[in-house]
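fyi for ur records
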Amino acid sequence: MSAEPDGPEDRLRRFATIWSRAVFPVTSTSATRPEFEEQLLPLARRLSQALRARTFDADEAKAVGAALVDAHCTDPDALSRTLDCVDAYLVLYCGEDGPTEDLRARAARIQHAMAAGFAQALRERTLAEQEAIAQAALRAQGVVAQALHATEARFRAVFEGAAIGIGIADLEGNILQVNGALLRMFGLSEQSMQARKVQDWTHPEDAPQTWRLYDELIRGEREHYHVEKAFNRPDGTVLWTNLTVSLLRDPDGNPQYQLALMEDTTERRLLNLRLRYEATHDALTGLPNRTFFFERLEKALGAGKGQRFGLCYLDLDGFKTINDSLGHAAGDRLLVEVADRLQSCTTAPGEMVARLGGDEFVALTTGTDTEREVDELAARIMNAMVAPISVDGRELTVRGSIGIVEGPAGERSPAEVLRSADITMYRAKSAGGNRFELADPEADARAITRHGLTTALPTALDRGEFFIEYQPLVHLGDGSVRGAEALVRWLHPQHGVLGPDRFIPLAEHTGLIVPLGRWVLEQSVRQARAWRERYGDGTAAGPLRINVNLSPCQLTHPGLVQDTVDILERTGVDPDALCLEVTESALIGADDDLLKPLRQLAEMGVDIALDDFGTGYSNLANLRRLPVSILKLDRSFTQSMQQFPADPVDLKIVEGIVSLAHSLDLAVTVEGVETGAQAEQLRILGCDTAQGWYYARPGPPERLHELALVDASG
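which gave:
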């Protein structure tokens, strides 16, 4: 933060700065804000003196209010913002060491007097303008009356007091008479003005209908018309006007003269152009902004047949790191340099570059051969980013990821094109960055589907769209059913039944995996209770257990142990009825903090299974420190056993893993068993339990009942 100003003059200027910033946006002036601040500085000084004067002088405050009107601060918001500034800051910056309550009372009286002076000056100005216009209208009406009834060839000059420009010409365009206001607008003498004809005052920016309306009026086909028109001044500047031209007829009704009324709008137009520029350009880089870019893109997409477009969507790689390490000021300087380089890449006709926000830029090219041009444009952009950028004495290497969309005009909306480019850009970033990718409709569709599933996930659980299927776990020694693995499914309203591979990664990314996993755990434990109630102490081989998968996000959630305890207590199920499956990859390099909740659960009696064992490249020696009681061997090791003879290498690997597991007092479960020969081979190798399509596909809990009944009857 900057230091507060010290001296009275500094404090006074600070007050004037705050005042100018508040009022400038609602002031119709061609001055810049610093120039406007200099106009307010003497007014601020008068207010400061009025605040500290021995006796209060209301006329001084009224004079300041009237001076605001003279400075073109005629908008009602200008007065409101001025009074707010006086109320909030006058005492703070100009009160020095006087009693605060007295100064605030004096400031309130100043505000009232300023408002009165402002209102009175605005009223007087309005009345004066109305009187001037009324006088001009009366004089013009006198001219019309004379034109209709008098026999004189010319009208007498009655316009000199008018505030607007007035001119009279005949139907051939000869200028007969003009008033002083019109001469001052053009910067010409009366002789120079009368030496030119109306038709000579053409301008390149004339609207197409301007001279058509003029011809219709001269022919007597219309009585008047109103247009916005530009005129060239002798000094090379442009005069912009609101022009109203009326037809004057003689007493018989025949067209005779034309009367022109002009209002100078140059200053207002320049202000509007400045506001338009600020609204359509990025304040930091000076590039066109998102609004301007969408206007150009919409125009390009609406072009005629045979026209095409190409779009490069650029996002800087690692920009957040630069912002976080060097600060936002350095990041802004980096963005300015990137913008300059991008502008140098888009100099051909039909090309433009814009900043969408943050570190996102977009380049557009249009024409008939954009398939080649957009690739060349992307290559130029990548080359422009190669050279390091110097910021605060540091040489920064900047890279970017670009998504390219190209195609014919008229087939897609701007929003669709930008969405496709955004998706493609993130595809390039996911592939490592510092590259560009071409849009792929199929990849776009998959990304849109993923986005739709992601947004639908939070409400899907509330709507009860998830359900659980169970796949039996069978003992390889006697073929008995020992339990089942719970596998969650999503019954999506549009996409039907979705497997966990379609939505579990999305749930982990959004954090919904925690409530979803809690729901799966509770439903599965309730099902285990139902099985135990049905079979008593269990089947002929023992009690049935339920296996539930835990995601890495659930492992790190602080409520895992308490949620599990609460669910077991609420359902009345013993911990030995539950087995939690954790993937091997989730435990690679796990420290004691991560293993602590698993150890607590294991000490309670909950079994922990190491799922997909053999795919995580973990150190087998680490098995001794993991709180697991079961190894679930990945199906990749046993696929060759579906054929005879089995791969001897796979047999040796499985045999070694089983021997190691049993030596550590761990049971071995095999996934993906699909044939009887495979099951027999695994039994011979010493595996304990198995699951797979050979026994049953995942299904409703009743199917496990049927298998268990067959087992019990056998």
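Residues 100-149 form the longest helix (50 residues). thats all i got for now
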